[in-house]
Every structure is written in structure tokens, then in C-alpha cells.
Amino acid sequence: MLENQLLKIAQDFGSPVYVYNAEKIESQYKRLTNAFKAVKSLKINYAVKALSNISILKLFNSLGSGIDTVSIQEVQLGLAAGFLPDQIIFTPNGVSLNEIEEAAKLGVKINIDNLSILEQFGTKHPKTPVCIRINPHVMAGGNANISVGHIDSKFGISIHQIPHILRIVENTKMTINGIHMHTGSDILDIEVFLYASEILFETAKQFKNLDFIDFGSGFKVPYKPGDIETNIEELGEKLSKKFNDFCKEYGKDLTLAFEPGKFLVSESGSFLTKVNAIKQTTSTVFAQVDSGFNHLIRPMFYGSHHEIINISNPKGRERFYTVVGYICETDTFGNNRRINEINEGDVLCFKNAGAYCFSMASNYNSRFRPAEVLWYKEKAHLIRKRETFEDIMNNQIEVDFTSKKEKELIK
């Protein structure tokens, strides 16, 4: 999107505001499907947790995508967005058997990553096929918090526990229709991904009734000009060949599945904030904006980098600023950044704000969560209203401490 279009959105809808470019989402989806065009059956399941607005889900539905969900609420969102149950895969971690059964009743695909739950589910529902999430014991990812395939991860069933899985399958007579892995996010080295795929193929040979193999995702996107990213085209070429060769060996054409989130929506998103004040200390010039980690927690949580530009003064001379929020704790968005000269009232744009940004927002400090806008076919569409005080009060129940009964309780 052009800077003047973003500035107009900030003026029309106020700030802070999240803006998503539908055209970028569509191009990323097509880029991924084109990379694996050599595969007969490919299924992209968008990871709902990255950005769960129902209009975004409907956009993916229109593109032919399925969805990957991690909670029963995300399953319900997917159904509300028009996805058929067989277009939804449920991949939770650490949830109760009841929640898995609830999802199974809705008819969605089930993915289980716990031996205990697998045995319980198979015993009660042997006719319901399930996918198994394997932990390949491959360390991958850009941060310890998003590396989920290592040996001490809470995710997946260890490849060393395959005999236990086979015992449960034999005892319960359940059907395993898929094998899944997800090693982490921000994977740059495709050789690590290909190495993990070999482990998954070897595991898949143990199961004779598979319909699909799910390779998760974790593809790295660029966070700044000139940044490196996963070479999705090279990965597509190499993994497609390995997958096709495996299908020949397996004796059946399986579906190759992925569940990308960040890759599909991160670069589509812009987060717009207004500068409340410029504050200079002995060594730092702060640009203080009308937001905080209540709206964008990733820089504080992951140390993630979001490029910050001044769309109100794109041609101004560059100076160094530390961009901070209005939360009553340290909430630094960018330290000592080179940005076109900032004045109070200017609008700053945080890039790569499509994934895990609004979805991780909160009402900390009793602040309202911002609005969301979708730029679709050269028009700005409001897809979530900015919260109000009524939203903050909603579901809160006030106790009447003035009544005689309550006063007696206080005593």
C-alpha cells in the first residue's frame, strides 16, 4: 500500500489502527501454491492464530485455503467463516480430551500430540481417524519461544516413542490418517527443513492408511529492507521431489499439507500510531506514541523487529529516535532507530504487523484494543470496530458494597 493511502486510513479511522492489504495476502498464498505446483495434491491450511478476524478467514476461504486451528473457539470461527469441517484441522496442545471430542463432533480433522490423549481418544472413538503430531527432535526457529521441535519441547510425540503409538493403534484399532510436524518459526535454512522431512517420511512408513502428510510451516519473512527470508521456491522444488518420490514408494498419492500463518499475513499488515510527544533526555530522543505493548507485544516478548517509518514526513531528514509507548512499564518498540524527522502529531507506520500482533493484543492498563481495517480492491473496509468503555465493562459484575448484607460481610 502507498503511504498516502495509509495516512488517509489513519485520518478516517483514527489511531492506533491495524491495516491489512488483501492483495499481499493473495500474492503470498499464490507464491506458496506455485512453489509446490509439482505436487498432485496440495493443501494450504492457514494458521488462524496468526490473525483470526473473520473477514480475513473469509478471504482465505475465497482463495481455496483450509485452516489450521488450535482451540475449539478457532474451529467455531472457521465454521462461522464458511469453511466446511473437512477443510479444518484441529491441532491443539495440552487441551482436555473433552475439547478434542467437541471438535471431533463438529467433523473437523483431529491432530493429537500426546500419547495419553491418543489412547483415551482411540479407546472411546476408534472409528474417528486422527493425525499424529510428531516431534522430530530438530531445533529450528528464530527464537527459543518459537522453536517447538527440539527434544525438550512440550509439542508433539517423540520419534523415539513410535513403538508406543503403534501399540496404541493396534490395541484400539484406530485409524491414523495423517502425520504432522512443526519444528518452529522463522526457519531460514531449508536444509534443516529437508532433514526434518526425511524423519517424517521414515515415520510415515509405519502407518499404512495415511491420506496426508503435514509439514507445518515456520517460513521466515523479511523484517527490514534487504533482510533474508526462506527461499520458498527452492524449498518447493526440493521438497516436492522428495514428497513425490515418497508417494511412489508408499504406493499412494498423498496430500502434501502446510499450515503457514506468518508467511501469509505478516507482510500484509501495517500498524499505525500517532506521536503524542517528543521527549529528549541526556542521551536519547523518545518518540512517544498512542499505543503500547498492550497492542503490539512482539518487540517486548520476542525481541522482534518491526520497521518503523514516518508516513507524515516521508522525505524529512533522518534522525535517531527511540520509539516508545504509553504503558506504565518499559515498552520500547524500536531503540535508536533512524527515522525521517518526527514531529508531534505525525503518524508512524510499523511494518510486518499482520501476524501475531492484534491477535496478542490485550486491555492492559484498561486501554481499548484498536480497530482493524482491510484494504481490499482499492477500498478501506472496517473489519473490527475500536473498543469502547462499554466493551471494557462488558461481562464485569459489580458487587453492591452499600447494602446492609454486604457491610456485614465486610465486617
Description:
This is Diaminopimelate decarboxylase. This protein is of the alpha/beta class and 411 residues long. The chain has 13 helices and 18 strands. It has helices spanning 3-13, 22-35, 54-63, 72-80, 97-105, 115-124, 162-172, 190-204, 232-250, 262-265, 298-301, 389-393, 404-410, and strands spanning 17-21, 42-47, 66-69, 88-90, 109-112, 130-135, 157-158, 176-180, 212-214, 255-258, 269-280, 285-289, 308-310, 318-324, 332-340, 347-350, 371-376, 379-384. Strands 1, 11, 12, 13, 14, 15, 16, 17 and 18 form a nine-stranded mixed sheet that branches. An eight-stranded parallel beta barrel has the order 2-3-4-5-6-8-9-10, surrounded by six helices. β3 (66-69), α4 and β4 form a beta-alpha-beta unit. It starts with a helix and ends with a helix. Mean pLDDT is 93; it is low at 140-150.
